Amino acid sequence: MTNTFTLGNASMTSEIAQQTLADRYNGIFAPLEISAEAFQAAYDTPDIGPHIEKDYKGLSYLSWPFAYRYLKQHFPTFFVSFEEKTLGEVVFGVPGAYYLRPYLTDGCRRTVALVFPIMDRKHNAIKELDGRAISDNCQRAAVKCIATFTGLGLRLYAGEDIPKEEDQRESSKPAPAARKAAPSPKEATGGTSESFDGKAALLSFCTANPLGYGDAKACQMAVKGSLESLGLERGTDLKTVSDFGNVITTLVSTWTKDQGIKITKVAMGKELDTIRAECANGVDAVNAAVAAFYEAKK
User: Fold this and answer.
1) What is the C-alpha to C-alpha distance for residues 185 and 171, in angstroms, rounded to an integer?
2) Which of 121, 153, 204, 297 is geometrically suited to a Cys-Cys bond with 62, CB 3.0 to 4.6 A?
3) What's residue 163's pLDDT?
């Protein structure tokens, strides 16, 4: 029998190819093994801290370039691949329930495949696909695949899908009565989600322009880029001063790279932590911390 492989409709009609597909879906393959010692060493990678960022919900994540970098440092022969629905098509499912199936491999052996839902930057299921959505989610899926099977950055996912007991208790409590008194100055500058004005906070930052951009408008464009990198669209998406701090530290990190400033990852992490710590004191304190950083680095 002549084996045939047709690109047009991505069909594979040979008996060998059919059996390979059947084996794959039945979980029959040469397993990629990672020792407990190698997994623990990857899980405990000490220098991953400076590359941890937060999304608009405050969830920590490791950006895909750094995930790949650490993968090649610890497991140089491994790479991420994806199950294919048909040749070259990696998306499974239906509108509102699209998903990817990433797995780790060395080209000969492989792990089982994960199920990774295709989401937008706000963690909502995507109903209409485009090339950008597929590309972005492939990168996110690859990061989670690397974390799951090697331990690199896995601790960032701890507790992500299981509500804490405190959260469950709080959700079961009756809603508190509306507060009649006016908010205190500290609350008005960033205490609660009810009182925080994200738009005003960003306008305050741009007016102060503590990073020395050409003018307030240039600062606004830079802030917009930081918002987008965190999956946010506008200042009103910021619900707390901590959200504001995440946007500003992302901006500071980008500014530092753009200026070509030489600083170690550990030192930069400490600088950003200093700025974040000022969130407890309100927007003006964050602006002042950024201004101090600028003065020290210009």
Assistant:
1) 28
2) 153
3) 45
Element (H, E) at 203: helix 198-208
- Tens digit of pLDDT for each residue in 88-135? 899 999 999 999 999 999 989 999 999 999 998 888 899 999 999 999
- Alpha-carbon distance 232 to 57, whole Å? 10
Q: What is the pLDDT of residue 259?
A: 86
Helices 64-74 and 36-43: crossing angle in degrees, nearest 10, is 140
Which stretches of the chain score pLDDT less than 50? 1-13, 161-171, 175-193
Selected from 2.60.40, 2.30.30, 3.30.390, 2.20.25, the CATH number assigned to the domain covering 12-157 reads 3.30.390
Rounded to whole angstroms, how far apart are CA atoms 285 and 295? 15
The torsion of the CA quartet 156, 157, 162, 167, rounded to 10 degrees, works out to 20
pTM of the predicted protein model: 0.50
Q: Which residues fall within 8 angstroms of residue 116, CB to CB, at 6 or more apart?
A: 99, 100, 101, 102, 137, 140, 141, 144, 145
The structural domains of the chain, with segments of one domain joined by +, span 12-157, 185-297
- Burial of 23 by CB count in 10 Å (0-12 exposed, 13-18 middle, 19+ buried)? exposed
Structural tokens at position 116: 């990774």
Instruction: Report the SS3 class of residue 79.
Output: strand
CA-CA distances (angstroms) from residue 214 to 207, 208, 217? 12, 12, 8
